[in-house]
Every structure is written in C-alpha cells, then in structure tokens.
UniProtKB/TrEMBL annotation:
One of its GO terms (molecular function) is calcium ion binding. The lineage of its organism: Eukaryota, Fungi, Dikarya, Ascomycota, Pezizomycotina. Residues 1-18 form the signal peptide. The keyword Secreted does not apply. This is EF-hand domain-containing protein.
Amino acid sequence: MRVIAAALGLCCLQLVSAHGSHSQEDSVNPADDWALYHMQEEHHISNFDPSSFFSLHDFNNDGSWTADEIRRTYGLDDESLKNTAADLKDKAVLNAFKLFDPTGTGIITRDQWLNGVRAGKKLPDSGLGPGHHGDDEYEYEIHHFEKYHDENTKEEDLIHPEDIAHFRKHDMMEDEAERVLKEQQQNIVEKNIPMKFRKQQ
C-alpha cells in the first residue's frame, strides 16, 4: 500500500471541493428521469439545467454528442458492464439517438438536446446503471470514499474490501511500471528473445 498516503491526500482534497449534497432520500427513480439519476449518482448534483448537462457530457467540447459520447455518458464501457451483451449497449445508444436525433444525422447537437428537453423528452433509462464514466480514482472517491470516509480518515482506517482492492490495483500498477523501467534499462531483454534463437543447453 505504497500509494495510500498520496491517494488519501487526493481524495481528501477532492472532498473539500465536493460536488454538492446528495442523499438517498431525494434520489430519483432512473425510469422517471435517467439524467437526474445519473447526475445524483455520478456527480452528486441534483440542481442543474439541460445546457449544463449537455456541456458536462460533451467530452470533446465540440458542441455535439456523438455515439461514443452517449456511450460514455451511459458508462457502457465501464468494467461493471463488461459482461453485458453488446446489443444491449448498442440499444441504449440507439434509443437516445431516436429521441434526440430523429433525422438520423449521427450526432445530437446542443440545440437538438435543448429543443428535445423543452418538448418533454428525457434520456431513456437503459437499465444498465447510473453511467459510470469516470476513471478509477473518481469512481472510487465518489462511490466509496465519500460514502464511508472523510477528510479525517487515516491510512489504518482504509480496511474495507473496496479500499484494499483499490490500493492493491495501485500497487500492481506501480510494480508493473517498475518492471517496465527495469527492462528498458537493460541492453537485451532475454525473455523477449524467441526460444529458437536462444542457446540450448
């Protein structure tokens, strides 16, 4: 757990600038309003306007949503959905486009989104969760650290299975980086030489 102190500091820093309040009592049913559900679960925001939602999920800031951006908004490439059938994921993207891109241009512009929302349209609930689209650090912080820890948490308090798995992953990444660096410093990496070219004993 070599990186716990650094990660703990990062989590505490992010807690200080937290996203706003969020409680289970005011959580919305995803079938009623998936966008609000997503914002509550993934961003801890309950008060936002459609334009802000669009901007937050316009990941390349070009003024439109592509299929990849809808896919990312719904978190369809998240590890938690790795065993979900591809056709279910594709259907989630297609359903959003049917609502907000009825002419089939392949993008959803800000105007299409805002006009659709004004007409009462909402992003449909795909039944595939809240849309995890952050990196590992963000997802750990928002779904575990903020829930069970706070800025006063000490290293010895990080004993939940989620904490252990999170920091084990950090250790593995650090070990791999050290291994690669060590190999890069070698003139010849013997294990990379095919067996047929090695001296047989």
